[in-house]
């Protein structure tokens, strides 16, 4: 009979026991469960069909015998009976639906649904009644009396009639039959007789628990009914949907029929605001759960990953088909979704779910069935969905959100995000929308935005920025990206929203969108992308978009975990909602939508002008945001040469109220600074300057830096008014002790003070009171420039008196002295007095040395009566090099007309560096302070070389053949005294001592005649050694002078007999001259002995620089050049640059003919060169260097000081333009007129130098001289900042003393004469 899973004998035994009416009920139920667990579905249906009597008998016995209201044991048996009845209803629906045992089943259900039964029994009874009700409904046997029971199954459900559902159900359960129940219904509403034993909160919780289970049973139990015809199941769903709409939703939503949505007829329903209801109101609870139920059905499309089980999902799909198969049910569903927007904020959970469903339909991630079927157009549907979503902002609960404002904000963000994504992300919709829809959408958004953003509550504060972002970005994308022509009224409506808005975040969001629209405009007009973070922004948006879409798709079937206990809390207030979407602040839809310049330029220009005009910079509370935004926009437009648009914006800024003018200064200043590229209209320039003058009159400090950046012509207009107020502003800044304000005013005054009478005194007064070192440096440099420009010699000492009492005197004194160095051409004496005073004040040895170097330089270049004072101070400090510089060079050398560039002749070859020969012998003489070398490189050339710690000097000696003058008595007397020789006891003093002949001290050897006589006569001197010793002793003790040889006797001669006398030795005239000169100069006793490598030591000494050397890079930057390759590739420059370079020094060519510092340049390279008594400077000019970019960079990149002449007015030159780690000082020169140059100074470390300072204005006539002095001082300041630094002559002094003098040894007199008087001489 059955396809058994177990043994046939066991099945048959269970059947026999189940059908045995004499067995107890518990045993029969047990065997029935065994059978149902064992048999298949068809076998179950067959079993109950064949044994329907026994089954119903068992149910009747279990239910009618026991009391299920209070006794637990009886309730357990009653549950067994209900379970059995459930099997009958689910497995034999055709039998039940045809009316079989209807009255008996109804009687059993009456007892089960009795209101006073236990909750567990009632829940089961409600579920069985739903199955029974559906079965009868399919066959058309569901009578109105059962409809009434169906309506009152839930306790405390609100009925229009005001009846209590509990009382109605109680009357039904106590009625004797159908006739009796119908009679009671005809008698009118059933009055409540029970007392209110429960509180309103308890009744609300009870209704919520039953309503949740009831709606769940409605969908779930339909699937459990086993019909022979599967179509009957769909009929059950249609039946339940219809009854729930009529009997439940009709009761809760009173205007469902009169004001409901009719999507098929084009009626959306009137927008009426009802009175706010309490969250615990039964109507609110019923609406919440009914909306939630209908929304879950409408959203049932796909099986979610973590969604409900398959059976529950299949039931939702079944009911979804039933819902959208009926026009009435579809309209009701849409009406309930509209009503969800008006639920209390405690019900935000279901509101979020409805928003997700509507958003998925609006964004066309899913096409609604009534649209897919073609019954409703996509335009009508989309408008309806958008209006339903926006109806949330008309909710009466928003004005009193209180602690629930976060829920309201979250829903608002979800709605606005959907509207924003529809426009910006869904560019290619499956079903395109017409132009009318977009206009209607924007009008609806403007309407609700105008209402919300005008209010001053916490909800409006939080959503105002989101509204602004949605409105403006949507209208921009619709107009410029989608290229849809929308009505101009939409722009007016958006402007009205911004005008009525009271929140600053609205303006801030507008500013962000303006920046994006400006970027898109520039991209289309100039083909330049000004955003460097575009890719990062796009990725962030894509992540946000993906997560948002996943949330929409998964929220359709998202269920909250609910407690199974009947005492569970209000699940309506659950916080398990979609988190707030910060897409309004974290993403940039416009930037993501515009990735190229393929759009319509005119459309973007029109859109940009519309958007930037939405917020005015005049009277609105957010005017400061508008000004800042416009200022940034002007900067971006100027960077790509879109000057007309920038000028148009600037015309709006010059008309702002005076109180807002300070915020406009940066943008207006940028307009004027770009005048070298494209001049603004004269009227605009005049208005900008007028604004600056007004700000100066009001003593506004923020305008001061802007005035500092004006051109020469513009400064000439502003300067008179500015100078009227600058002294007062300086006084105010000094009083307020605002260092920044004081620095700006001081900088401007320093620029303009040359035309202000009494500027020097104002600067001195301000210097006395300033306690900021940077300000003091600017004042000192300005004073130095003024003194030099005006040649105010008398002001030098006055300024020095003020500086020496300042708290930063030790830093300012060297700075001031170095900055006024060029004053020597007017009055070197006054400058020397100042330097002497400064040297006496300084305690730091290195700083004092720098001052002494300046003094030596003055004394060398100009004769000074105060030279003894200078020498005394130098000797006190034991500066041998300075003494040598001053006395040696200043007192004797160079002679008049000697070129100062040849003072350091390290480039020439030392005379002793050539290989010596037998005929070329060098004699070295140690004078302690000098090394004198005597050499004869050729027979016709004789050189004397003098090497000191200062330098090396060479003389060529020639014999002049000139007749001697007539003999005078003094000359005769000197010759006579010289011929007499030195007398015993005679002092070697005075001129006679100086003229003594050194040969007088040499011994004379015995004559041959004497020697011969001695040997022949006595033989006493026969031994040569003995004779030599006697001769040496005689020479030591003899004071005899050599006498000419006279005639001797024949016996005394050694020659032949009769030979004449030997004539006396007569010296050569040249030898006599040389003996006289060398004796006069004192060379003979000072001849020294040197080692074989002494020439190498002298070469090292000669190559050691005697002056400080500097190398400076001078770079020319042409128009539009902004990288190293293009800048260093220049081989020519502008005439102004060439004039500037030509005045930095004199042009030299490295190699032969240039014996000064070469700065590492290769031979034949041209360069400007400058030298004076203390330093040399060579300039590496980028346009003069030979080779390619890399070869030029080897020289320029290693320089410590860079001077940049820039003619690129579009981009400011910075360190990053040509990056190098060696550039410690950067000086940028910018033209601000035909004859004026602005100086920008940037240092890598804290260095103090002058006279030029950052922001200084200099005329072209004095630029080169001031730049040269500044770069030398800057290079020297950089070196002085290092502890191990010393002047070059310090090193030369060490080389001179240790390596040269230290290797010279004295000689014996005979050896000295032998070296000094060689036979060739």
UniProtKB/TrEMBL annotation:
Ranges for domain Rap-GAP: 1098-1299
Protein keywords: GTPase activation, Phosphoprotein
GO molecular function (one): GTPase activator activity
Polar residues: bias regions: 571-580
Compositionally biased region (Gly residues): 1047-1058
Positions with biased composition (Basic and acidic residues): 977-986
Name of the protein described by the UniProt record: Rap-GAP domain-containing protein
């Amino acid at each position: 009979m059955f396809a058994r899973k177990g043994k046939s004998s066991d099945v048959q035994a269970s059947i026999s026991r189940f059908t045995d009416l004499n067995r107890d009920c518990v045993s029969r139920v047990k065997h029935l469960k065994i059978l149902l667990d064992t048999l298949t579905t068809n076998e179950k249906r067959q079993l109950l069909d064949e044994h329907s009597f026994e089954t119903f008998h068992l149910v009747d016995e279990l239910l009618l015998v026991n009391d299920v209201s209070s006794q637990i044991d009886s309730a357990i048996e009653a549950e067994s009976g209900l379970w059995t009845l459930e099997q009958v209803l689910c497995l034999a629906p055709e039998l039940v639906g045809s009316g079989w045992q209807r009255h008996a089943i109804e009687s059993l259900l009456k007892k089960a649904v009795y209101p006073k039964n236990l909750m567990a029994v009632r829940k089961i009874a409600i579920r069985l009644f739903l199955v029974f009700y559906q079965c009868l409904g399919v066959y058309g046997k569901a009578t109105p009396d059962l409809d009434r029971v169906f309506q009152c199954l839930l306790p405390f459900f609100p009925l229009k009639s005001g009846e209590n559902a509990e009382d109605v159900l109680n009357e039904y359960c106590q009625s004797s039959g159908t006739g009796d129940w119908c009679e009671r219904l005809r008698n009118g509403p059933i009055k409540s007789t029970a007392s209110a034993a429960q509180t309103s909160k308890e009744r609300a919780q009870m209704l919520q628990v039953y309503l949740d289970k009831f709606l769940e049973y409605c969908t779930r139990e339909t699937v459990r009914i086993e019909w022979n015809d599967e179509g009957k199941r769909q009929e059950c769903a249609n039946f339940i949907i219809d009854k729930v709409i009529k009997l439940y939703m009709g009761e809760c939503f009173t205007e469902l029929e009169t004001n409901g949505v009719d999507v098929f007829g084009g009626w959306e329903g009137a927008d009426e605001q009802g009175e706010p209801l309490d969250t615990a109101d039964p109507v609110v609870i019923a609406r919440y759960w009914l909306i939630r139920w209908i929304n879950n059905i409408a959203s049932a499309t796909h099986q979610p990953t973590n969604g409900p089980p398959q059976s529950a999902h299949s039931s939702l799909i079944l009911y979804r088909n039933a819902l959208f198969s009926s026009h009435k049910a579809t309209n009701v569903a849409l009406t309930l979704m509209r009503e969800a927007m008006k639920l209390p904020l405690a019900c935000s959970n279901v509101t979020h779910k409805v928003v997700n469903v509507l958003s998925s339909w609006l964004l066309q991630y899913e096409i609604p069935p009534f649209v897919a079927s073609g019954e409703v157009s996509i335009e009508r549907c989309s408008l309806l969905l958008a209006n339903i979503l926006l109806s949330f902002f008309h909710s009466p609960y928003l004005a009193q959100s209180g602690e629930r404002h976060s829920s309201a904000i979250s829903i608002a963000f979800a709605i606005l995000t959907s509207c924003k994504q529809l426009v910006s992300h869904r560019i290619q919709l499956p079903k395109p929308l017409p132009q009318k829809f977009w206009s209607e959408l924007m009008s609806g958004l403007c309407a609700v935005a105008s209402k919300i953003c005008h209010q001053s509550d916490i909800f409006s504060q939080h959503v105002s920025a989101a509204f602004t972002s949605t409105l403006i970005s949507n209208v921009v994308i619709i107009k410029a990206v989608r290229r849809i022509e929308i009505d101009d009224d939409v722009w007016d409506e958006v402007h009205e929203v911004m005008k009525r808005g009271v929140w600053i975040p609205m303006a801030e969001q507008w500013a962000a969108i303006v920046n994006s629209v400006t970027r898109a405009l520039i991209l289309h007009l100039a083909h330049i992308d000004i955003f460097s973070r575009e890719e990062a922004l796009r990725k962030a948006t894509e992540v946000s978009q993906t997560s948002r879409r996943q949330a929409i798709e998964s929220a359709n079937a998202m269920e909250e975990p609910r407690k199974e206990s009947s005492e569970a809390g209000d699940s309506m207030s659950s916080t398990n909602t979609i988190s707030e979407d910060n897409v309004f602040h974290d993403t940039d839809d416009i930037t993501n939508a515009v990735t190229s310049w393929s759009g319509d330029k005119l459309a973007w220009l029109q859109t940009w002008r519309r958007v930037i005009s939405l917020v005015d910079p005049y009277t609105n509370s957010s005017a400061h945001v508008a000004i800042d935004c416009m200022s940034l926009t002007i900067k971006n437009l100027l960077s790509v040469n879109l000057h007309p648009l920038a000028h148009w914006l600037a015309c709006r800024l010059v008309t702002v109220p005076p109180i807002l003018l300070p915020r406009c200064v940066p943008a207006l200043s940028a307009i004027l600074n770009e005048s070298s590229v494209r001049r603004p209209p004269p009227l605009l320039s005049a208005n900008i300057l007028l604004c600056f003058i007004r700000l100066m009159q009001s003593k506004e400090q923020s305008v001061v830096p802007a005035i500092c950046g004006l051109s020469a012509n513009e400064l000439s207009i502003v300067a008179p008014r500015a100078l009227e107020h600058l002294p007062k502003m300086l006084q105010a800044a000094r009083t307020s002790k605002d260092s920044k304000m004081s620095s700006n005013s001081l900088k401007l005054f320093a620029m303009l003070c040359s035309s202000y009478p009494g500027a020097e005194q104002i600067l001195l007064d301000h210097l006395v009171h300033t306690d900021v070192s940077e300000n003091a440096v600017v004042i000192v440099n300005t004073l130095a420039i003024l003194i030099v420009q005006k040649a105010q010699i008398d002001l030098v000492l006055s300024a020095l008196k003020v500086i020496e009492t300042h708290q930063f005197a030790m830093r300012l004194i060297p700075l001031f002295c170095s900055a006024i160095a060029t004053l020597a051409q007017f009055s070197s004496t006054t400058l020397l007095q100042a330097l002497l005073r400064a040297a006496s004040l300084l305690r730091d040895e290195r700083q004092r040395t720098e001052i002494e170097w300046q003094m030596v330089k003055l004394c060398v270049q100009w004769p000074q009566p105060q030279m003894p004072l200078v020498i005394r101070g130098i000797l006190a400090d034991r500066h041998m090099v300075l003494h040598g510089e001053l006395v040696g060079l200043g007192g004797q050398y160079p002679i008049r007309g000697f070129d100062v560039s040849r003072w350091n002749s390290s480039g020439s070859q030392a005379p002793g560096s050539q290989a010596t020969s037998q005929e070329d012998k060098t004699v070295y003489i140690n004078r302690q302070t000098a090394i004198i070398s005597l050499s004869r490189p050729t027979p016709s050339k004789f050189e004397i070389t003098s090497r000191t710690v200062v330098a090396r000097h060479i003389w060529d000696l020639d014999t002049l053949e000139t007749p001697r003058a007539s003999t005078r008595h003094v000359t005769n007397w000197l010759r006579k005294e010289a011929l007499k020789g030195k007398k015993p006891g005679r002092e070697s003093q005075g001129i006679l001592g100086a003229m003594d002949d050194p040969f007088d001290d040499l011994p004379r050897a015995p004559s041959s005649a004497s020697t011969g006589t001695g040997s022949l006569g006595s033989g006493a001197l026969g031994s040569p050694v003995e004779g030599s010793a006697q001769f040496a002793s005689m020479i030591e003790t003899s004071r005899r002078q050599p006498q000419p040889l006279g005639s001797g006797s024949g016996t005394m001669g050694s020659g032949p007999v009769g030979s004449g006398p030997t004539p006396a030795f007569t010296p050569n005239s040249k030898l006599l001259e040389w003996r006289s000169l060398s004796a006069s100069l004192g060379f003979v006793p000072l001849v020294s002995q040197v080692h074989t490598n002494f020439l190498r030591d002298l070469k090292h000494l000669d190559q050691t620089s005697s002056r400080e050397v500097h190398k400076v890079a001078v770079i020319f930057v042409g128009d539009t050049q902004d990288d190293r390759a293009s800048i260093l590739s220049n081989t020519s420059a502008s005439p102004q640059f060439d004039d500037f370079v030509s005045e930095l020094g004199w042009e030299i060519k490295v190699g032969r003919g240039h014996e000064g510092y070469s700065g590492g340049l290769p031979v034949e390279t041209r360069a400007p060169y400058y030298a004076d008594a203390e330093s040399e400077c060579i300039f590496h000019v980028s346009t003069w260097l030979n080779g390619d970019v890399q070869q030029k960079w080897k020289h320029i990149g290693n320089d410590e000081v860079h001077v940049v002449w820039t003619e690129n007015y579009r981009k400011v030159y910075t360190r990053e333009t040509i990056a190098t780690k060696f550039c410690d000082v950067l000086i940028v020169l910018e033209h601000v007129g035909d004859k004026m140059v602005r100086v920008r100074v940037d240092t890598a470390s804290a260095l103090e130098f002058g006279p030029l300072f950052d922001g200084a204005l200099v005329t072209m006539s004095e630029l080169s001289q001031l730049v040269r002095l500044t770069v030398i001082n800057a290079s020297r300041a950089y070196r002085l900042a290092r502890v191990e630094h010393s002047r070059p002559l310090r090193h030369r002094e060490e080389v001179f003393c240790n390596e040269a003098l230290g290797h010279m040894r004295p000689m014996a007199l005979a050896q000295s004469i032998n070296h000094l008087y060689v036979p060739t001489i």
